[in-house]
């Protein structure tokens, strides 16, 4: 009886929270922020005392005034964009240029949106997934400001009921992928777009359903090794503390992943799968089971495959998953970041990566991790919508709580000026014009201070693996050096170019 009473109280609290959240979005009604999410104010001391990272990494507090921080993206300049759905805005956290471990400043980039969640940058565009639409706006990477008007390119997405967040990502096929969770805990959806992953063109248009039966796949990403799409999925509630498992699915086009008829590895759902007719039983039999299970109610959200070569060897190509934490459970569980590792046979093992968001008493909550972004130096940014914070996890260090500056690589002296081959520079200029490089680099991403960072050879090597969104052109060795000579010659000035014979 006590257990039933506890579940009843949890249910009543959840209903009240849902009503408060709904009221918060009625125009003219002001609901205090604390009533929407709860708060767990954090600071450097709390992070140092409470959070721990896996060996080889250290964690620090990058920003602590970002209420409802959800999805993240990183600009070419290293600024961090963060969506704040319940504030209707996307904010920009300036890169840590002064190297004190914290953002150098924060400002609202765009507001007035309908619960913006997923976002990504592609070329000179910022794409944003609102709860009922997807839009894009020109973005100037050089100064971190919008360069034009925001325009919706997909509209009419259903955001009624539960799981209204929309997540987007750019696939290796050059199309935009969009997840839309279910409208309920468990039901047969009337709208076929709910509980799916869809995709559409970069310029918009009618989304096509890519995969279905995915109750709430908030996070997804592509393996840099296999190119396959993996998505987290939250299992249904009210079947006890330990069932059903939350899921990691390898998502394939046209596949059905079980919900609402099956949970976990094709276990018939007691409401919609057990004693079902032959058609439903066939759907269950043909559904695709998860490739990895998380404990029930851990709520896996963001997933990110690590790509930077600066990551420790055992973490390269591993995936990080944010376990947001349970509410529908008699004892809290989750509230951490885990890493997933694939062996040569394709088997997946799981390790704790960042933990301490849940206190030792299993009741006190210090934060709830949501999503990730990784910069070119291997810094991993982690959002927390409960504490309203963004953390930075940095490779190359043991333990947690150390300051960023204490473990930063030593500052290297700028490379010595190198003689420039005027003939090569001229051929490089022809390449620069042929590929219309000025389209991006004249204004949106001007090339400055190259001589402080590169020699001719290191700049030529950079073209083998440029930082996205710059495309890889597969230049020959001669072409790479010619382009490097040209770009560096522009900073020297034509009068200082030394012909090489």
TrEMBL record:
Domain Pyrroloquinoline quinone-dependent pyranose dehydrogenase beta-propeller per the UniProt entry, residue ranges: 52-394
Organism: Microbulbifer flavimaris
Signal peptide stretch: none
Residues that span the membrane, as ranges: 7-26
Keyword Transmembrane assigned: yes
Pfam family, one: Cytochrome_CBB3
Presence of the UniProt keyword Metal-binding in the record: yes
InterPro entries assigned to the protein according to its UniProt record, in alphabetical order: 6-blade_b-propeller_TolB-like, Beta-prop_PDH, Cyt_c-like_dom, Cyt_c-like_dom_sf, Quinoprot_gluc/sorb_DH_b-prop
All copies of domain Cytochrome c, residue ranges: 424-487
Annotated keywords: Heme, Iron, Membrane, Metal-binding, Transmembrane, Transmembrane helix
Region (Disordered): 401-420
SUPFAM superfamilies in the record: Cytochrome c, Soluble quinoprotein glucose dehydrogenase
Name used for this protein in its record: Oxidoreductase
């Amino acid at each position: 009886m006590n257990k039933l009473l506890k579940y009843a109280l949890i249910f009543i609290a959840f209903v009240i929270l849902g009503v408060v959240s709904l009221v918060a979005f009625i125009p003219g009604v002001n609901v205090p922020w604390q009533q929407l999410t709860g708060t767990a104010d954090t600071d450097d001391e709390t992070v140092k005392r409470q959070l721990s990272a896996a060996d080889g990494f250290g964690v620090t507090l990058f920003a602590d005034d970002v209420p409802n921080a959800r999805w993240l993206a990183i600009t070419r300049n290293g600024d961090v964009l963060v969506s704040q759905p319940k504030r209707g805005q996307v904010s920009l956290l300036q890169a840590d240029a002064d190297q004190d471990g914290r953002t150098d400043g924060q400002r609202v980039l765009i507001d007035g949106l309908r619960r913006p969640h997923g976002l990504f940058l592609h070329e000179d565009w910022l794409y944003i997934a609102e709860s009922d639409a997807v839009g894009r706006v020109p973005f100037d990477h050089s100064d971190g400001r919008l360069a034009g008007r925001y325009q919706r390119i997909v509209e009419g997405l259903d955001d009624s009921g539960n799981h209204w967040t929309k997540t987007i990502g750019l696939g290796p096929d050059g199309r935009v992928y969009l997840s839309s969770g279910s409208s309920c805990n468990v039901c047969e959806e009337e709208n076929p777009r709910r509980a799916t992953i869809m995709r559409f063109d970069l310029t918009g248009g009618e989304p096509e359903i890519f995969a279905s039966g995915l109750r709430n796949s908030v996070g997804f990403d592509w393996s840099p090794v296999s190119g396959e799409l993996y998505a987290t999925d939250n299992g249904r509630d009210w079947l006890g503390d330990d069932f059903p498992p939350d899921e990691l699915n390898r998502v394939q086009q046209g596949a059905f992943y079980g919900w609402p008829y099956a949970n976990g590895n094709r276990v018939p759902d007691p409401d919609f799968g057990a004693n079902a007719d032959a058609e439903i039983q066939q759907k269950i039999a043909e559904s695709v089971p998860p490739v990895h299970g998380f404990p029930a109610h851990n709520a896996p959200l963001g997933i990110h495959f690590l790509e930077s070569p600066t990551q420790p060897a055992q973490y390269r190509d591993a995936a990080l998953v944010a376990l947001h934490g349970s509410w529908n459970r008699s004892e809290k569980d989750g509230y951490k970041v885990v890493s997933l590792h694939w062996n040569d046979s394709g088997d997946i093992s799981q390790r704790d990566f960042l933990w301490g968001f849940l206190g030792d008493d299993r009741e006190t909550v210090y934060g709830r991790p949501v999503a990730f972004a990784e910069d070119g130096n291997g810094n991993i940014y982690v959002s927390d919508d409960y504490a309203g914070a963004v953390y930075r996890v940095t490779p190359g260090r043991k333990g947690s709580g150390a300051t960023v500056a204490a473990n930063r690589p030593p500052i290297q002296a700028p490379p010595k000026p190198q003689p420039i081959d005027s003939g090569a520079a001229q051929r490089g200029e022809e390449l620069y014009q042929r590929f219309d490089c000025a389209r991006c680099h004249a204004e949106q991403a001007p090339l400055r201070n190259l001589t402080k960072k590169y020699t001719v050879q290191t700049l030529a090597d950079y073209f083998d693996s440029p930082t996205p969104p710059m495309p890889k052109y597969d230049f020959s060795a001669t072409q790479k050096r010619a382009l490097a000579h040209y770009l560096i010659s522009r900073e020297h000035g034509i009068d200082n170019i030394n012909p090489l014979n």
